[in-house]
Amino acid sequence: MSLAAHLRELRKRFVIGAIALVVGMIVAWIFTDAIIWAMTEPIRVVAEQRGEDDFVTLMYQSITGPFDMRLRISFAVGILISAPVWLWQLWAFLMPGLTRKEIRYTIGFVAAAIPLFFGGVFVGWLIMPHIVELMATFTPEGASNIYDSKYYYDFVFKLLVVVGVSFVLPVFLVALNLAGVMSGKAILKGWRAAILIATIFAALATPSADVVSMLLLAGILTVLFFAAAGLSMLFDRRRSKRERAQGLEL
User: Where exactly are the transmembrane stretches of this chain (predicted)?
Assistant: First the structure.
């Protein structure tokens, strides 16, 4: 294909992905009330615990604040809803330039990364109320918990993304192994640091009195790390067998 043909193909894929995103945003907009209600449930719990319904609430600092929050939520959820379409468009554009081996690796990477990411997002959603409730306990007597809507949304969104990405990191370790950057033994040697990092991350992400939540998150991250190390060592063994077989043939 010529450069002009590549650009036309890219524009076509981009337009289809953009249309899917807009449709996803429209669908998400319909459910923004339910999403906002679920997001703000921890605030209502804090208000009930403190008995101060008027002083524990979500605040909009501008006239367009409520619309802006709905638009942000629609965009984030719309990206998730339309992901199968725009991911396919991206894949269809890149696939002709990939080798059969690269296609196989890419499919495996995406097939593992997507469910792990959504699993991490789900775990982040479960621990989010604990964080809000615990932070509210540090409010001094006589003060109020009035949460800025923009800041509150950013907190929830960033927490979900960070926990989701942390679940995908083991897949990147396997990808580095397949690329020949790190061996399985090298990954496994870092198990002490991995457990320490997983524990610290879990402690920061779940600052609640419930230690079980912290141990659960740290345990999941540790298991994923050892699974990545085990897979990498298996790939190394297969690679060395192929290399020995090729050496004997020569």
Answer: 14-39, 73-94, 106-128, 155-179, 191-209, 215-235
